[in-house]
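Reposting from the mailing list since nobody answered there.

I have sequence plus structure tokens for a pair of proteins and want to know whether others read the tokens the same way I do. The first protein:
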Amino acid sequence: MAFTMKQMSIIVSTFGILSFIAGVIAENKKPASGNVITGKGVVICKYPSDPTVVLGYLSVAFLALCTAFGYLSLFYPYKGKSVPQAALFRKTSFIVFFNIALGVTGLAAAMLLWPTITEQLHHARNVHHNLKTQCPTAKTGLLGGGAFLSLDSALFWLVALMLADNAREDYFEEMGNKGASSEPIKGSA
């Protein structure tokens, strides 16, 4: 199936928005702390049932799909016409936004994965021998910040896609001009 640039931008946007929504809901559903249950020489942390870990991983998965389609959309041969990567990377603005998109994606992934994995470890390792344990949860705010960065990442992929489209047009225009003859047409005055 051949994709159009509009379809690719809708796919990138959709996955970016889904990652944002899942991350924000995960942040809002995260409990402040677990319930302390004291036993003989141990503290058992009972955490309420919440979808934080699942939503955190879903947000990361949607971010990965957004990134994969964002990257693919830049180099995809639209209308069967491919452009060499060197032609795209000749444009400074494209290079800048391409690298920003990669950087923001990495930062978003780190900010989503860190609290998600931490929360999962808190739930799995809930027996503590330190009787002063307060049953902590993952740091508050990281999932929400990661969610906003994943939305930013999608926006930067879309800007890079627009700049790639401009570079494609310039490339095809150059190729069209190289094929034109510089000699005047016979019969013209």
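The second protein, same order (residues first, tokens after):
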Amino acid sequence: MPDSLPASNGLRRAALTMHAVRDRCVWTQRIGHDDLVPYLQEEAAELVDAVETGTRDDLKEELGDLLWQVLFHAEIASRDESDPFDIDDVADALAEKMIRRHPHVFGDAIATTPEEVLVHWNAAKAAEKKTRTSVLDGVSTHMPSLALAQKMLGKAAQVDVIPAPAPAALASEAELGDALLALVAFARSEGWDAERALRQRLRTLADAVRAAESS
């Protein structure tokens, strides 16, 4: 039982707890990778809230909830009949990737500025992704639209593709899209996070709505 699992290694204890839950919980036994996607998205969003507006306890709890999703996926994968892997395989692959992408930490490369670190990172990533034929390969279309726009603008800049400027007046939904993309491009040029900026304003709006409701 989870209560009797060793407490000396928190990650190992969590992995063994997940294993026991998968073995003994009839609901958990029916869950597959696809079934977990909505929960993963929800937990990631709640972690963002904890980072931006929560307490330290909130942050610790939400990190744990997101970790549970990783452990859950790994536990499901460990029981795959054709191509199993477990949380140790996931962790080992992650460690190997991070070592490759930090040659200035684990190798002889030198990086004294963040820009130089990024050069090493991108070079290592390019070597890993040799089969990719487009800078857009690997960009998830499931990202929120503003965040996706900011990501794709960065990719577009790598191949010198510049979106059209926003129209002076809006007469169609397509022109609204152009205007929104232009705003995201401006945010990116300023080093701002368009998605976070809108979230912050929405929180202000939510406070105003609640204040109006209680008045």
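Reply #1 (J.P.):
I read it the same way you do. Residues 139-214 form one domain.
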